[in-house]
Input
Amino acid sequence: MLDVPTPFSTGIPGNSISQNIGRVQNKGVELSINATLVQAGDFEWNINANYSHIKNKIVSLFTIGGVETTELFPSNYNINRVGESINALYGYEFAGVNSGNGNPVYLNKDGKYVQRNISNGTYYFANSLNDPTLGAATTLTQADKKILGSAQPIDFGAITNTFSYRGISLELMFRYQAGNEIMNITRQEILSNQKFANSGKDLLNRWTTPGQVTDVPKLWYNQDAIINQNGEATTRFIESGNFLRLQNIVLGYDFDARRLQSLTRNALRSARFFVQAQNAFVWTNYKGIDPEAYSENGQDNSISPQVRNISFGVNLGL
Amino acid sequence: MKYITKFSILLVFSITLLFAGCKEKLDLAPFNQIDGGTAYATAERCLLALNGVYDAAQSGVYDPLNGGATAVRGYPFGAAAVEQQDMRGEDMINVATFFAITYQSTYNPTSPNNVNMWKELYALVNKANISIEGFKTAGTSGIITSAVAAQYEAECRFLRAMAHHELLIHFAKPFSDGNGAALGVPYRDFAVQSSSAVELTKTLPRETVAEVYTKILADLDFAESNLAVTLTGSESTYRATKAAAIALKMRVKLHKSDLPGVIAEGGKLIPATVNPLNFTSVVSPIGGWALTPVVNGPFLNNASKESIFSIKNDPLDNPQTNASLARMYGQSSTATGGRGLVAVSPISWNLPEWTCTDRRRTALYYNGTDNTGNTSKFTSKYTDAVNQSDWTPYIRYAEVLLIQAEAEARNATAVSQRAVDLLNTVRNRAIVDSVTNQYTSGSFANKNALINAILKEKRIEFLAEGKRWGDIHRLVQDPVFGTGGVPEKMVNGFNNIGAFVCGGAVPAAGTPFIPYADYRFLWPIPQQERNTNPIIEQNSGY
Output
């Protein structure tokens, strides 16, 4: 049961009604391993690893006037297409920047180069990525969009290592995720302010001279929506969401309970000191602030990142 | 398949009550939660529902379409209709990026401006349709009198006609193209509040432009017969009255080039003889509408005697800082909150027909700071940037006079004295020493010269009021007065104050002309409409 979009021309508030939207199939495997790798004297190393692999596929969608729908667009950046994963990212394939004139170049549905002339927003064919000539006028429309990646991770899981030696224990928990793409709207729209205040640093790589090979088109004051294709997904702003995160480190020391009780005449029954770091490190190629700061449809649009939390503590049992 | 449908009209909440072993019952119909079944249960609620339809005309929900939060931005008529029409025309300038997509015609089926206009116009239409049903039921069951029910219905049908006409001028070709044979828009004249009604809409293709015009006029005829002549105080301006329906009919019939039709309608609102030198003596027999004595009268007083119909805004409910006309069109100022985002263009300012001593130049325009810190030309038609309480003018009596002037001028074989008089009535308020400077029939070599003067007067009088695109669209194929497409405009962000010279040359335009045959002359049907309702054909080229 999801919101099925209604035509705008019905004038229904929110433009959707809740109904069974279709059928989705999830196929995958889940594995979990617990192992004691080392047990030597007082030293012990335990590992707990789990792994999930999920392939998500839309089997069918609702019908419109008796006709089976095969495509549904939850937003400008996404598509739900029968046979594909749910909320797949959908938009234009960015081919690069024309090094001859600084225009952004896309691939149309026939795989031909189409450049967007920044001065007026019109599309022209491009002979190559370095020929500045504007070819015949053309368009880049809905028909030229393609599926640009899965918004859902395909592989994910966690590995927890626990080391203990006498009263000292160390726990390292890693989480990982792979297979999803993120539409980095934050990076796209932060380029909109061209007064060089609060702008993304991508602007430093903008095209300035003929022959310069870069992936940031030239600037043209007030034409940022045209330059960056605001409001649309393009591969220029779609990035892999793969990451490995050191989610949790806990270093602790437990006092020997029997000695403690005799030392304190049973006033303290147990004591534990610990240092804990949450979200300690992230290894990722994702350019945004956090590879998990995205919505359920794979969009990073100014979403708050996870916080890094370091805490110290003492547990006393009275 | 199981359907759960849910619609809100004004305040609709579904309440799920789960109690176990509880004897006390919750209030099943809380006072502040009204559902569709009870929204029309009392006379007060009927009036509130009607208010809700006007509210939908003022502002619905703007969706930036990027996953960001929705906002209030004066869609459709609270501000956006004015801004979009001005930005499609050449007489105003987009200063920064705010309306650049409209200004430069780079819209596509997912650009927010055109999508939200479509979406919110139909949201207004559906609210009107739902309320029409509610008022009919309330009228037959005696909750309100049948006369009141008919009046409320007439107000809704006025707004419904207004919405469909706005849709036509953006998303469909003009009536002149094949006498209305081109693809129009679907005319929604039934309430959609069930999944079966949704399914019904998916079987209704775009009607022809002519069919839509017929339905618009049928709505306005009903409105004229059932609307009040006047209401209490300022309600006469922010609610539809008989004169508003007639005035809108004049505009619509002019779009259809139905000249005798325009003249017949205009005859109801304009006396048979007018004295242009005593322009305030020209008073509408219906509603008493007349020109204000001074050119900025309709803007100093939201509910002036000239303001036949306006959309009401107030400090608590307005299109807000990203849309309100006073902020967008007023100069950039931290003191007022003005943003200097829409400026006057030298294309209109330098029109040779606009005399240098014209009072409108000083009373309604000033040099101010634009959004980028440069000096440019701004309008003071919208005065309250601080509280954003300016009402949005929709039809003024001046437009009634100039529509009638154009129809009379076109309908005559020679220079029509009646048309000259009507033109003078509006123009004499603005020019100095009107006794010697007003037009005479001798001022015009032929009737085309007169029509040209009337059309230029419309551009001058309604500058910054969102009337320009309507005339570009209507006249695009006119061999004499048509622009032949989207006219060339100054470059986006133009700000050379030295270029504003009364009667002077206009600097080279930087935004190129787009011919009528180009697909960009029309806005695209929103992609979401096409996705969910494939029977609605896309405009070619998108």
Remarks:
- Residues 1-21 of chain B have pLDDT under 50 and may be disordered.
- Chain B touches chain A through 64 residues (CB under 8 Å).
- Residues 79 and 135 of chain B are 28 Å apart (CA to CA).
- The radius of gyration of chain B is 23 Å.
